[in-house]
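Narrative progress, year one. The postdoctoral researcher (J.K.) led the effort to move from monomer predictions toward full complexes, under supervision of the PI. The following entry was the first complex the group processed end to end, covering 557 residues in total.
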Amino acid sequence: MDIYFPIAEMPISVPLLLALGGGVGFLSGMFGIGGGFLMTPLLVIVGVPAPVAAASVANQVVGASVSGALAQWRRGNVDVRMAGLLIAAGFVGSAAGVALFGLLRELGQIDLVIAACYVTLLGTLGLLMEIESIRAWRRRRNPVGRRRKLHAHLWIHGLPLKMKFRASRLYISIFAPLSIGFGVGALSGVMGVGGGFVMVPALIYLLDMPTAMAVGTSLLQITVVAANVTFLQSVGNQTVDIMLALLLIVGSVIGAQLGTMFGGRLRGEHLRALLGLIVLVVAFRVAYDLTVNPDELFSLGLSGGRH
Amino acid sequence: MRRPAALATATALLALTGAAPLAAAEQLIADLSSREIRITTGFTGAELLLFGATDARAGDIVIVVRGPGRVEEVRRKHRVAGIWMNGPAVPFKNVPGFYYVASTRPIEDIAKPPLLEQLQIGLPALRLETVRPADPEVEDSYREGLVRLKRNRSLYDAEAGTITVIGDRLFRTTISFPAGVPTGEYQVKVYLFRDGKPVSASATPLLVLKSGLEAAIFRFAHDQSALYGIVAILAALVAGWLAGVIFRKA
């Protein structure tokens, strides 16, 4: 059963979209990621023009993450103070990222920069997560000689203007969440994704936030950032396909609820190992596309897509 | 109103090509089963019937359907240090969004290349020029890539022998438009060729437009984009929240 989408200007199978939404929604509920970094390339593979895919996915992410954020909120897994700082810095960062995006597009190399960002970021993150979860698993099996500090002390903890984050049991400088918010915002502006897949590990590894709290806080931040991106894309490019987004939401909210339930049953390190694996697969896929001989050397239309 | 315009076009065209003056007997009339294609929610492509009649003498019929023109940027991937990266964009001007040629015989048997090029009949004759002057070899390879990509999307095609001719006077054929057909104003031209020269021609306009819900959403997104953005966010929030509530109860 196909429906013609008014902004994408093409018919797409409805069951296919529901399945895509459900699958990606499951992962986003489980890991607290928006799922944009998976959904956008998938839609492009289906044939949706890249600018429409990225903008409509931002709209979809609003719906998918609000249900996840509410579910996490009920579990007390949202640090509101932290989320507020991340969102404020994220707005500034995404404006800078969108400007950088425009510059790179004029230079004609935005595709390569996006692909390179995917490979280096996802590759590094995936590896870090795998190493970390293997270490955690070993510690559990062999508790003798375990000597871990309560909090790892990185340079980020030495910054001034400290603030208490009671929900996360942290006492850190406000510059830490501000710089993470700005950095992830800039990245999402360039890559056109929510940035949850960078935000969650940054909160866990740089700030030493509890995993569940990082997931919930990140979901709230993603909801707000995605809403901002949806608005900017609607006004600037008219590329948001509301019909496409709503169909994806139906699939993804159901998937997200299942994912949140399923994720709650898994141990923290298992969760990280799984997310790390998915992130590595995507990184590998993008790296493969960059290096393998393409079937078709030519492409049409404005740059800004990923494929 | 349309018939005189079509005849005027035909006369102007014949004057341009230096063909024999249009004799009253060498008439050609043609029309489409519909002069509008409406894109609605269930749209998966359309087929139109083109039909017409010529005078009694035998000749070759050629049909050219041309969609709205726009600038298309073509990029080619290059290998740099083992990585395939996009080269600079080469923009082509006035690229038709849809181009289809049907003829009673292979087009190269009907007329000589210079004439076909002048009339832009057939994929090799279709005029596709870069916006900025480019090296001819580069231009040719990018042009080839552009045509191939359009063909793969069923937007460009040329077919011979698909026109049914009845009793040397009547002819008909179907024209298929894929689901991804661009909206805008189309021109459907029908030529009657005799001894390698066009002796008569007719032009019929065709409009491809969004309709109903599709048109309403498209107009909303373009005319009131800020409000559209807010509605999109609210719809997503409500849908996400509602689905969550329903799911929790179930």
